[in-house]
Amino acid sequence: MAAIRHVRDLPVEGKRVFLRVDFNVPLSKPESGARRKVTDDSRIQAALETIRHLLERGARLVLASHLGRPKGKSSPESSLEPVAAHLAELLAMEVTLTDEPVGDGARKVVADLRDGQIAMLENLRWSPGEEANDDTFARALASYADVYVNDAFGTAHRAHASTVGMIPHLADAGAGFLMYEEVDKLSRLLGEVDRPYLAILGGAKVSDKIEVLEALLGRVDGIAIGGAMANTFLKAKGQDLGASLVEEDKLPVARSFLRKASEAKVQVRLPVDLVVATSFDAESGSPVAVDQVKIDQMALDIGPASSRAYSDDIARARTIFWNGPMGVFERPPFAAGTLAVAGAVAENRLAFTVVGGGDSVAAVNQAGLADKISHVSTGGGASLEFVQGLTLPGIEALEKAGR
Fold it and tell me: Do domains 7-183+393-401 and 188-372 have the same CATH topology?
């Protein structure tokens, strides 16, 4: 961490500054004649401190982000135009969007910038060179700037041209306010922590989380598991889950993990009851014990008894990391478990609490509890890899640049 330079310490006055941001935000569905709009601007809001800092110091700002997965091809649906328009409204100033990520048009827009002005490059992933970390593409991006700043923690686990490849081609590089805070706060989970240390993991698939689960065995005192992946663990213990989503091919992995947790003396909390329905579109669900799921029912949330047990664990913890919902959070009938966890985490004011992952963050925001969480991470996958102790390419590149 000490090796990474902060944006405050970089020479940006009158310089062209390339600022990598994570503006991969949800947009409204396209309607005839209507401009698409940003429906959740939390990622844009998170970058405003760095943007305003650079503008106030007279930087000539070149913003860059990806949007969606256009797979190296341009399309109106993946254009950053609605994002640039939204940012312009937030800043009350013009934000010029280029018509391509690199090329003559982009070069001219950047060259015409004056102190305190902003240009935004079109979707970086319109070029296959971005995800391939192609050196030619990286050099083209680097040619637009004198200074590099990364404020996109959500992409720090990707070795792409804009997060890794272009940095060696610039004399000065560092982290924005958001990136610096993410690394600072998440680093607290890797050293000595106040105990008990509880990890809460949710989501759909064991296959998505097994690596972090196993890595956490050597760090935490307890793990609470929810979401559809809890179904796989319950079935691995012999429960019949009816029509619930279960990764049948991961049952041996689940049994192996439970055995390792027992040997490591790490308590694994699984649901004792579930909210079930016959379809995702059901208007309501019914709580049943885990051994009472009928053949046509599927588990879509943890039940009220499980919520109370999880909340009790949370109240006793002094360090908490939460990633992933307890159920089908986007459907109100199956959001209670996730919201209960959010409330319990927020109520524990004695603990250092970190929440990461889209649905988990959405839950604390929806409940108006974000200001009661020690740190709300903007990176789901990046935060998972960080707490495992893995090297994140985007952070490693900044560390090398700071030496």
Answer: yes
**Model confidence pLDDT, tens digit, residues 253-283:** 999 999 999 999 999 999 999 999 999 999 9
Which of 116, 99, 170 minimizes the C-alpha distance to 140? 170
Report the alpha-carbon distance of residue 150 to residue 155 in Å, rounded. 10
| 211-234 confidence digits (pLDDT tens) | 999 999 989 999 999 999 999 999
Catalytic residues: 43, 205, 358, 381
Q: Which amino acid is at 192?
A: E
What are the boundaries of each domain within the chain?
7-183+393-401, 188-372
Write phi, then psi, for 122 (nearest 5 degrees): -65, 165
What are the pLDDT digits (tens) for 28-39?
A: 987 766 789 999
CATH 3.40.50.1260 given to domain 188-372 = yes
Could you confirm whether domain 7-183+393-401 is CATH 3.40.50.1260?
yes
